[in-house]
Amino acid sequence: MQDLSDITAAILAGGLGTRLRSVVADRPKVLAEVQRRPFLEYLLDQLSAAKVRDVVLCTGHMGDQVRKRLGDTYGPLRLFYSQEPSPLGTGGALRFALPLLTSDTVLVMNGDSFCNADLRGFRNWHGAQGGRASLLLTYQADTQRYGRVQFHSDGRILRFNEKDAQNGPGWINGGIYLINRSLLQAIPEGEAISLESDLFPLWVGQGLYGYCNGDQFLDIGIPEAYAAADHFFSKGGPP
């Protein structure tokens, strides 16, 4: 199975973290402490295990703290920084970072969620499908907080159901993506635009696929979920 040493990874670490501010106010969300470590380090560990070598941190709000904390390397990873001058959304942040995203396929991760998944298997599956972008999907017993993803048996994504539209079990966006660089290049430059709300729905029918693999999933975006993070990584998360 092919590793990810030839792929540039990007971590979206520029969110304002407004919903988490009541418990994490003095630092960006990706530096929120989990078991006395910045949450971001768990994502970097996951990338290192998949043999990724180059990681671009797309920072924004209090982004200087991220560079000061991590520097230019993390274990075998080389770290690069793309700090947006004003909030550009997740899609705009990737477009702004494009000069640093040098591989034909870019691995993108949300900086405020963790999905314990086989990244190398995801990369091989994406290549075999021949699509332009793939989302890693994770199965949840209650999708109400996240919305759910509907897809064809061959993995082609058909639609995205809004958050709070319905509860119950289903497949959700796990916050990890493989996106062809040509798609990122087509994002309007300098505009605030969201991957999840604007671009993914636009890409339906244009080579957008869903990979059903992730199992253990954590999104620290709200205080209740952040409070569960210590237990997740000590008991329910990866070894």
Characterise the protein shown here.
This protein has 239 residues and is of the alpha/beta class. The chain contains 8 helices and 14 strands. It has helices spanning 39-49, 63-70, 89-96, 119-129, 181-185, 195-203, 223-227, 229-236, and strands at 8-13, 33-34, 37-38, 54-59, 73-74, 77-83, 105-110, 113-115, 133-140, 148-151, 157-161, 170-180, 208-214, 217-219. The strands form 4 sheets. An 8-stranded mixed beta sheet has the order 5-6-4-1-7-12-9-13, sandwiched between helices. α3 (89-96) packs across α6 (195-203). The longest helix is centred in the first third of the chain and has 11 residues, at 39-49. It is globular, with a radius of gyration of 17 Å. It starts with 7 loop residues before the first strand and ends with a helix. The model has no long low-confidence stretch (mean pLDDT 91).
Tally of DSSP helical segments: 8
Report the principal-axis shape: globular
End-to-end gap: 22 Å
The SS-based structural class is alpha/beta
**Which spans have pLDDT < 50 for at least 5 consecutive residues?**
none
The total domain count is 1
| Estimated radius of gyration | 17 Å
Task: Tell me what portion of residues adopts beta-strand conformation.
Answer: 25-35%
**Helix proportion:** 25-40%
CATH architecture label name: Alpha-Beta Complex
Q: In this structure, how is the largest beta sheet organized?
A: 8 strands, mixed
Précis, in short:
This protein is an alpha/beta fold and 239 residues long. The protein has helices spanning 39-49, 63-70, 89-96, 119-129, 181-185, 195-203, 223-227, 229-236; strands at residues 8-13, 33-34, 37-38, 54-59, 73-74, 77-83, 105-110, 113-115, 133-140, 148-151, 157-161, 170-180, 208-214, 217-219. The chain is built from 8 helices and 14 strands.
